[in-house]
From TrEMBL:
Entry-linked InterPro entries: CCR4/nocturin_mRNA_transcr, Endo/exonu/phosph_ase_sf, Endo/exonuclease/phosphatase
Assigned keywords, A-Z: Endonuclease, Hydrolase, Nuclease
Domain Endonuclease/exonuclease/phosphatase span(s) in chain numbering: 45-220
Gene3D superfamilies per the UniProt record, alphabetical: Endonuclease/exonuclease/phosphatase
Name of the protein in question: Endonuclease/Exonuclease/phosphatase family
């Protein structure tokens, strides 16, 4: 639950990042998936970018299920993180991946949420995560939070609106059902991923259910540009939402619960403002001669570097974790989020003039 109190702060950091699967990366009439040197070199660049942020939880979209590609990521993260993946149904070659730092957290359960039939060919990953540092003193429900990674269908035209709503309905329903089944009332939920649109019915439905965009909470408006799509439009489509589930129970909890206080939310590379124009990605570079981004100071040079990595920018949120909340009175999340959302800059205003 998102709160204003401070008590025994520990930390949690979460990243969401659409990798741009090599099977979809077309440049100069070629697919990157046909060039193993190119896709493995770019995979290593993505891995380095992720590792530089040192996040506890990493949620990836367009994770390619080619053996060599998977092996590169598992080799990089499996020693320190739990690694779970979910492939899209049918003949789709990509899906989702989530890495959770096993030194700080434990996984109680992992569920794949199929968004098939009338909901298309997508998938979501729901993970029940618990803190390790207090497991000797606190029961599971007082150490728990949920992480949900999702990637919704691109809105090619108006016909896709109902499909996207069906997908997010299934995701939100899966969260509610899991919470009820596990008796986890009022635990924090972090919902993140590539939502493939902004200021649309999906966004409004998510916020209506008590979720708040953490970038908007930190900055007073949404990130303006997180993605340069295949139509060469620059849009803000990557989100990290936070909430505790709405409840009719008393606002003063009899049992202490884990609480998350957001303290930061930023795009990577951090030195690039969220209004900076992005470029369509390219592959085929000799990475041996590419300068490290940590040495780049010029915005244009950073944009030119990032177009070699992905067509999305990673989004990172950081929290203080409060696990000693006995007797704490928690304000209504619904009222809290409504108050904050009323003060945000509208997404239409934020996007004005930023797309061709």
């Amino acid at each position: 639950m998102l709160v204003e109190a401070l008590r025994r702060p520990r930390s949690l950091s979460l990243m969401t990042f659409n990798l741009l699967a090599p099977c979809y990366f077309r440049h100069g009439g070629r697919l990157e998936s046909d060039d193993q040197v190119s896709f493995l070199s770019r995979a290593q660049a993505s891995i380095r970018a992720i590792k530089r942020e040192q996040c506890d939880v990493v949620c990836l979209q367009e994770f390619w299920f080619k053996h060599e590609y998977q092996r590169a990521f598992r080799h990089a993260f499996q020693p320190t993180h739990y690694v779970h993946t979910a492939k899209r149904p049918g003949d789709k070659e990509d899906g989702l991946a989530v890495f959770v730092d096993k030194r700080k957290f434990e996984l109680h359960n992992v569920e794949s949420v199929d968004l098939v039939e009338e909901a298309g060919d997508r998938v979501a990953l729901l993970m029940h995560v618990a803190t390790k540092w207090n497991r000797e003193k606190a029961p599971l429900d007082q150490r728990s939070f949920l992480v949900v990674n999702s990637h919704l269908t691109f809105p090619h035209n108006e016909m896709y609106a109902s499909l996207r709503l069906s997908q997010i309905h299934r995701v939100l329903s899966a969260v509610r059902k899991y919470v009820a089944r596990q008796d986890l009332c009022d635990i924090p939920v972090l919902l993140c991923g590539d939502f493939n649109d902004y200021n649309d019915p999906v966004y409004r439905l998510v916020t209506k259910h008590g979720y708040a965009s953490l970038f908007a909470e930190m900055h007073g408006r949404e990130a303006r540009i997180t993605h340069c799509n295949h139509n060469n439009r620059e849009v803000g489509v990557d989100f990290i939402f936070g909430a505790r589930l709405d409840s009719d129970q008393a606002q003063t909890l009899l049992d202490p619960r884990l609480q998350l206080k957001p303290v930061d939310c930023h795009l990577v590379p951090r030195r690039l403002p969220d209004v900076v124009r992005l470029k369509r990605p390219q592959f085929g570079h000799d990475w041996r001669h590419v300068q490290s981004p940590v040495l780049l100071t010029d915005e244009e040079a950073l944009v030119d570097y990032w177009r070699m990595v992905s067509d999305h920018r990673p989004l990172v949120a950081k929290f203080q974790v409060l696990d000693d909340s006995d007797g704490l009175t928690i304000p209504s999340l619904e009222n809290e989020m409504k108050t904050k959302l009323e003060s945000f800059t509208s997404m239409d205003e934020a996007a004005t003039g930023l797309t061709p």
